[in-house]
Request: fold
Amino acid sequence: MTWSKLQNIIENNQSFLLSSHINPDGDSICSQLALYWYLTSLKKDVVIYNQDPVPDKFHFLHDSDKIINKLPQRAFEVFVIIDASNSERLGWDASGKTASLVVVIDHHRDNSYEGDLNIVEINASATSEILYKFFKECSINYPPYVAEALYAGILTDTGGFQFSNTNNYVLRICAELSEKGANCSEIYREIYSSYSPAGLQLRARIWSTLQFYRDNRISSMEMQESLVDKSGANRGEVEGMSDLALTAADVEVGMFIKYNDSSTHFSLRSKGAVDVGKVAQVIPGGGGHTCAAGCTIDLPVEEAKKKMLELIEKELG
Ligand SMILES: [Mn+2]
Reply:
């Protein structure tokens, strides 16, 4: 079984570097924190390095302040790529940095299996779910704040239990995590109801860009990247706009577009009929899940939007 291989690696090594994808989301942070807890509980030497900082709304998570954004200039025995399909998604050059052993723990279906050990469960709702299973099946008892992290990881990767990856197994796990100390209403409030006034005002501005295409089956909202800093909002406060673009009744694909003069980023969401992961994969560096994906097109916004609409149309049928 995979767990014994993972346990062996943990037992036989002392230093671990954990890293996850650029613009870390709830699941990437929470799965890192859960593994960090386990490794440090065994007195291992562990560093979590991500290229981008932890969004403010996740600062309530225990040990989130331990995550660093400056690449440590030292060697590690084990490098764990967590909640990311491959080392390119990390956003930093991991090639020269690779430890003697690489472990991959992930749930993205486009995972490239770069590890010496690959724990990739594409049916898992979140990487946090995989860690829950690891702890459960290895009878590892964790403190309430780890239950909180695992719950928050699943909560965010299911879009607050709204995506199709929400099922009875996921809900049973969450019930157990709640029993183990995850305070569901508090976690929800921290993550989804903690906007600054400037953040909410920026969201209102983004709402005002709402547009519909192709008989209202596609919707978009957009924002110039520099607007975040200008408005005084935090970067994390514009997250989730893509989910909101999908809330219109007839819309099959919603997108949130962030652009600068030369490139345009798309956060794509689908209700299920269109595989937006497949759409995003057409663009180099893009990818994701059936219902949530992303990509960047190196074109100004209007041209990029035209190209994206064509790609989505093909899948819409
Ligand atoms: Mn994830």
